[in-house]
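Side project, low priority. Logging it here so it doesn't get lost.
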Amino acid sequence: MYKVFVKNRPVILTDRPDQFIETSFEKHRFVSKKKLELQIEAFEHEKAAIGLMVFHYDLDELFYYFRRICRFVKAAGGVVQNKDDELLFIFRKQKWDLPKGKLDGDEHPREAALREVQEECGVGRLRIEDKLCDTYHTYWEDGRRVLKKTYWFTMKTNYEGRLIPQLEEDITDVKWLKQADLNVVSENTYRAINDVVEIFNNPNLPYNRE
């Protein structure tokens, strides 16, 4: 199964529709690339739709055609924990977010994740603990739909210096937040970010884990 966020709502791509129990989602069988593109566009403009599920017996083929209707880009980011078990968040464009950014050329996702956290937050002495999950979301750029895959890693640091938001990336604040205070994030963030935090707290949850 793949979960892709379109306009902050989930599109599920699966080869096992019988195991998908969410009854409120629209459901369609994959027929062709063109039909898939029309289904995604219709879902994008149907504001009342909660979610969409598209199924096909060959999941790899289904995801291949989903990628074909988009320009594909890669990004990487981190869920960073300090010695007090607080998590690092940024405030960008009036929403809470996790530090992340696009890969540079053939940069490895692990290297990109470390670089982006350092650049966006001013945090040093980072070390990657493990791969967490991948998220997918779409947006429009220069008249074409973009599919962004973000590789997420868990990180730790003993850095205790000042946090420095990367203002040129529209980041206006960087904060360490305790788990008990994460409701302020969950109420004003993207659903993919809530998923990443949930997986961090429940690592056995099924999710995109290529």
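Brief comment: The chain has five helices and eleven strands.
Revisit when time allows.
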